[in-house]
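Input chain follows. Return structure tokens only.
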Amino acid sequence: MSRPSSSLPDSRPPAVLTVSELNEIIRNRLETGIDALWVTGELSNVRFPPSGHVYFTLKDRQSQISAVLFRRHAESLRFRLEDGMEVVCSGRVSLYTVRGALQFYAVEVEARGKGALAVAFEQLKQRLSGEGLFDAERKKPLPFLPRTVGIVTSLHGAAVRDMLSIIGHRFPDRRVVIRPVRVQGDGAAEEIAAGIRELDATGAVDVMIVGRGGGSLEDLWAFNEEVVARAIASARVPVVSAVGHEIDVTIADFVADQRAATPTAAAEMVVPIGRELAYHVAALARRLRRGTESRLERRRENLRHWARRLADPGQRLRQGQMRLDDLSLRLWRRQEDGVARLRERLGHLAGRLGGVDPLAVLRRGYSIVYQVSDGSIVKDATSLQEGHRVRVDFAAGRAICQVEEVEE
């Protein structure tokens, strides 16, 4: 019996190899002879075993190859691999020696044509929509005049300042509870979801605003995470989503009870204008008074009509007329008392609105000093240093100044 000869240089294998030895030689030659590469193709036979690895077949019109994405790489994927998806994979070719099967070991997978974030967005959107989380029937109406407004956002940004300014201007005596969170980066989605659940669990807020200012798709991605969507959907109080600008759309917008184009628009949506409410109450009081007077006049005319038709209405008619006049007077007095109480209430509200108006303080000669660097209000001179630039707001206009000396 002739023995097979080996053409392998330097390291001569035994004349007769075991299957394991042969597969090991092939695997070594593959791994040393073929560098890491990128391969594009269509996914098929995608499987997700309990191990966390992802097994699939990568194919084109003529060929196919088995592939695996190990758990440590699969956990970093933004989207879920699905049959029929066109992808580009980075990895290496090797031999799975146990079965003698050629296999591609992927370390990175990108969606072809669409970015990974866009694919992940559409996948989550379709899944949550199928569960009914976007249905109009589950949306809760916003309260007409909330006593306390909850805000889940970052303290470092213009969005929270804009919302506080709008709410304070529209109805100064409304209470605002802020749950500060990170709104971008690793772990931001979990913080936002925790903030929503904590505010909702307190029972102290009547409506909640969840959002941030504008940014790129990556910056806003925390509001496209499933954990945030489910926290919004499970909230007992109405939630307004206010993420980015008007053109920005996130998963949070679809799940929330109301979507606002911007954080400023969200503040305007949840709190009405106090002055307009006062005007509306006064208008209703006038309509009620006119309606009461009209009804009384019709009753009187009806009595006069029957009085003319009766030759001698007698004592009962006179008593009825006296009773009607008495009731009319009592109703009129009650109406006047009600209107007086409304006027007193409106005057009280107007006084409170004027008392918290910062412009009124400025008109008395005071001013407000802001740090130019971060826009914060200067409350203590020791927080300034020589050379700092500050902005001074007056009742009319403002000035940019430089600190020359600080005195305690």
